[in-house]
Amino acid sequence: MHWPHSRARRVRLLALLAVGAAASVLMTPRPAHAYVLWNVYWQNNGNIQYCESSMTGNDTTAFNNALGNWNGQGLPIHFSGGSCGVHIFDENDGANGYTGYTSYSYGSTGCNGWGRLSSVSSKLNPYYTNNEGVQEVQSTAAHELGHALGLGHTSDQGTLMYPNEYRYINRGVYTPQADDRSGISYIYNSCGGK
Ligand SMILES: [Zn+2]
Predict the structure, then answer these.
(1) Nearest to 53 by CA among 72, 79, 77, 81
(2) Cα separations in angstroms, 162 against 51, 123, 146, 154, 155
(3) Which DSSP letter does residue 111 get?
(4) What are the respective helix, strand and coil percentages of the chain, to the nearest 5?
(5) Phi, psi of 165 (to 5 degrees)
(6) Which residue, among 19, 52, 190, 10, has the nearest Cα to 110 in the 3D structure?
(7) CB-based burial of residue 57 (10 Å sphere; 0-12 exposed, 13-18 middle, 19+ buried)?
(8) 72: which DSSP letter?
(9) Which residues contact 55 (CB under 8 A, 6 or more apart)?
């Protein structure tokens, strides 16, 4: 009478070991994301103020679409018009190779030792943008806003934070993608208000 019982227990144990082995394969460290952090963030519960000036051509529409794209993702951040935390503007820099450019400054460090953003400038270069369609400019504007939130460049063409036009030429990326959302969730779920 003990044999079948003990065999059954042994089979169950082997089954548990097999499950354990499968779980450890799934948990093997591997790059789970493409996003890159600038190690800076906005410390105000994800409420990010922006202002716009000197916009030309399609750039106002493109930037407003891009702001709406980010606000519509269900992320713990929200852009709202007000003070110039993020200053959005056009500046004709000629044929310098940059359709958009974002720079930032921060004061003290906070959560995770990251810099607390104090101001960001996100500009478009109408030398290029005035010859592009709204959708192309929107991809650049949304990309610059990704920087304004604290994301760096990826090496994945299927993400918004890929640094050149091949993200939309090859992959049709005009708005934040899953990996971009993951990066922002990571920053602001842990550090939004701290
Ligand atoms: Zn960039």
Answers:
(1) 81
(2) 25, 17, 11, 5, 6
(3) G
(4) 40, 20, 40
(5) -65, -10
(6) 190
(7) middle
(8) T
(9) 63, 88, 89, 90, 124
The answer for residues whose C-beta is within 8 angstroms of residue 80's C-beta and 6 or more apart is 47, 48, 49, 50
pLDDT digits (tens, 9 = 90+) for 130-155: 999 999 999 999 999 999 999 999 99
* Average pLDDT over the chain, rounded to an integer: 87
Say how many Å lie between the CA of residue 63 and the centre of ligand 1. 15
| pTM for the whole structure | 0.83
Ligand 1 centroid, distance to 6 Cα (angstroms) = 63
Q: How far is the CA of 110 from the centre of ligand 1 (A)?
A: 24
Structure tokens at 106: 């921060």
Tokens of 119: 């101001």
Distance 193 CA to ligand 1 centre (A): 25
CA of 25 from ligand 1 middle (Å) equals 35
- Provide the 10 A C-beta neighbour count for residue 18: 10
